[in-house]
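In the design runs reported in the main text, the only information available to the sequence generator was the tokenized backbone. The following block is the verbatim input for one such run; it is reproduced so that readers can re-run the procedure and compare outputs position by position.
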């Protein structure tokens, strides 16, 4: 990332200044919540604060507050270095509910609300991750993508998966993922992309409508009950890094009429990511998610001559076992998934090339032209020739 952009993101926010000035302060949940949950959470926090202020506890509370984060408002750089020194645990030590940087904070899970984080009418925005204190367990009612600009952060996802996000990594979190983040230092700069599900309505087309894998990835993230996550290690994939930086710059500078540009950029980003699914370090949520990505990646790369027997050999399982597993994980048979990919590829070639229909049929893996015409008519309601005439580029 360009140094000038990185320095801009490194700037200490108002919330972080308050954290640095008061070592016992946690994340300001009122900045992230709205509606009834906010008032209920605020009431819990007030009761907890009253309890901690009891005379018997006053001395110990004051002593504990001074251990982790040092107060400083006159010298921001000094404060940042002190906070990074005192608040940040060794990342290998993992996440615990009672770290020094969390000093009596309420451990109850809360929901970060899109109505609080996004201006009305906006489908996507960004914010820098709050440093110097553990960000407590929470959920989002939107899709979150975290990008690590520099340094590293340690995450506990769904109370079980520990993920270390390093410079250049991307972390995709489904809407219902449960998430906690260990305290970060001043040079651990992360960007949170906050995205409403409808932003992705056009992403599949942009990423390549013919790709069943891109559809799977987007659907896994945007479905309301999804608690999955995807950790991409892509620091050395230059196109991915350039697209993320372009997206950050566009959202930070809020250019007029940039909404469609941002969707195009995100679409291109997904198009790159579906080509490097081997860079997914970890995946959470549904247990069959990684398995289905392997199956769909095989279909993407071998759709012309893909076969269930070849895939079973690669997976070192019997054909019948693999067939049952695919059906259970996806609700479709291998044949149906392969046919879906071939038809999407045929649609793409009909719309964007002048290849004869017969050539397209052979290119997508069919030898029997009559069979292809039959399944195409069943799927699209018209013949391939008529589909091209009605929807093609001319």
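Verbatim output:
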């Amino acid at each position: 990332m360009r140094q000038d952009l990185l320095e801009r993101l490194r700037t200490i926010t108002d919330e972080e200044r308050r954290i640095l000035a008061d070592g016992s302060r946690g994340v300001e949940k009122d900045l992230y919540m709205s509606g009834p949950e906010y008032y209920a959470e605020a009431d819990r926090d007030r009761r907890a604060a009253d309890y901690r202020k009891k005379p018997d506890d006053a001395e110990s509370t004051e002593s504990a507050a001074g251990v982790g984060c040092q107060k400083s408002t006159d010298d921001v750089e000094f404060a940042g270095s002190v906070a990074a020194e005192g608040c940040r645990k060794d990342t290998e030590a993992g996440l615990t509910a009672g770290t020094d940087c969390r000093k009596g904070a309420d451990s109850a899970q809360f929901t970060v609300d899109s109505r609080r984080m996004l201006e009305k009418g906006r489908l996507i925005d960004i914010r820098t991750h709050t440093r110097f204190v553990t960000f407590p367990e929470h959920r989002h009612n939107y899709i979150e993508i975290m990008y690590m600009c520099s340094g590293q952060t340690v995450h506990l996802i769904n109370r079980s998966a520990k993920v270390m996000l390093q410079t250049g990594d991307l972390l995709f979190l489904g809407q219902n993922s449960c998430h906690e983040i260990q305290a970060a230092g001043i040079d651990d700069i992360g960007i949170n992309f906050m995205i409403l599900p409808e932003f992705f309505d056009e992403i599949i087309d942009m990423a390549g409508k013919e790709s069943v894998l891109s559809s799977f990835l987007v659907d896994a993230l945007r479905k309301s009950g999804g608690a999955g996550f995807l950790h991409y290690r892509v620091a050395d994939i230059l196109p991915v890094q350039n697209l993320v930086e372009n997206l950050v710059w566009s959202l930070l500078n809020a250019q007029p009429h940039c909404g469609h540009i941002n969707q195009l950029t995100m679409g291109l980003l997904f198009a790159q990511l579906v080509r490097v699914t081997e860079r997914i370090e970890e995946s959470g949520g549904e247990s069959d998610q990684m398995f289905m990505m392997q199956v769909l990646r095989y279909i993407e790369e071998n759709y012309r001559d893909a076969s269930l027997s070849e895939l079973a050999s690669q997976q070192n399982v019997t054909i019948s076992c693999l067939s049952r597993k695919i059906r259970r994980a996806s609700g479709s048979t291998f044949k149906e998934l392969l046919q879906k990919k071939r038809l999407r590829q045929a649609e793409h070639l009909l719309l964007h090339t002048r290849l004869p229909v017969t050539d397209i049929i052979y290119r997508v893996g069919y030898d029997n032209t009559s069979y292809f015409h039959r399944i195409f008519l069943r799927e699209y309601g018209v013949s391939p020739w008529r589909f091209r005439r009605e929807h093609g580029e001319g």
